[in-house]
Amino acid sequence: SQQGEEDPQALSIQEGENATMNCSYKTSINNLQWYRQNSGRGLVHLILIRSNEREKHSGRLRVTLDTSKKSSSLLITASRAADTASYFCATERTGGFKTIFGAGTRLFVKA
Amino acid sequence: GAGVSQSPRYKVAKRGQDVALRCDPISGHVSLFWYQQALGQGPEFLTYFQNEAQLDKSGLPSDRFFAERPEGSVSTLKIQRTQQEDSAVYLCASSFNRGFSYEQYFGPGTRLTVT
Questions:
Q1: CB within 8 Å: A98 and B59
Q2: Cβ neighbours of A103 in B, within 8 Å
Q3: Which string of DSSP letters, residue by residue, matches chain B?
C-alpha cells in the first residue's frame, strides 16, 4: 500500500564514493522529502523539495525532482561510514493528509 | 529545545490485552502523525491530527485502533485486543503545519511486541 518506491533496495559503496538513490511515486504531490534512519538516531529529516522546484542542495546532499516522471533522486557525495543508514523518500499528496513513505534504500558505506 | 517524545519505548503485551501509546509533540506544532513501521519496511501512515481534529484516519488497520488528541497537544494511540500482527514500531511525528514546506520531526518510537 506504500506509494513510494526506492531503488536500489540496497547499496554498498566505499568511503569517499558517491551514492545515488532513486524514488518514484504515483500521484500529484505538494512536496517530497528524504529521511534517514539508523538505530542510533531514529528517523531524521534530510531535505524537502517542493513540487515547483527541480533541484536542491544541502551540504553533501543533492536532490532532484522530476514531476513529469514522478521521480526523485538523492545524491550523497563523498560518502562517509557515518552515512550508513536506511534512506526513505516521503511524499505529501495534494488534496490529502497522508504522508506516504517508500520501503527505503539501505546504504552501507565501507571504511 | 525538546524534541518529540514517546512512551513507553518498549511494550510487551499478551495477545488480547489493550495497550496505550503516548506521544508528546514539539510544543506549538499543529500537525501530528502516527505511523506503524514493520521490520525492514518504511513507516506506514496511520492517522493525522490538525490540532485536536482527526482529519485522516484512513490508515488505521482495524477498528481495534483508536487515536485521540483531545487538547491539541499530547496524543494517545490505543490498540484494543492486541494481535500478533500488531507487533511493530509505532512512530509519532509532529510538524509546525502540513503541506508545502514543513518537515516532520519524529519521536524515537514505541516498539510493541505482542506475545
A1: yes
A2: 40-42
A3: ----EEE-SEEEE-TT--EEEEEE--TT--EEEEEEE-TTS--EEEEEEETTEEEE-TT--STTEEEE-TTSS-EEEEESS--GGG-EEEEEEEESS-STT---EE---EEEEE-
B37-64 tens-digit pLDDT = 998 899 999 999 999 999 999 999 999 9
Contacting residues for A69 by C-beta, under 8 A, at least 6 apart: A24
Chain A hits for B40, Cβ within 8 Å: 103
Which of the residue ranges A36-50, A83-97, B39-53 has the most confident prediction, judged by mean pLDDT? Answer: B39-53
Within 8 A by CB and 6+ apart from A107, the residues are: A10, A11, A12, A13, A19, A21, A76, A79, A83, A84, A85, A86, A87
pLDDT digits (tens, 9 = 90+) for A53-74: 999 999 999 999 999 999 999 9
User: Is the CB of residue A101 less than 8 Å away from at least one CB of chain B?
Assistant: yes
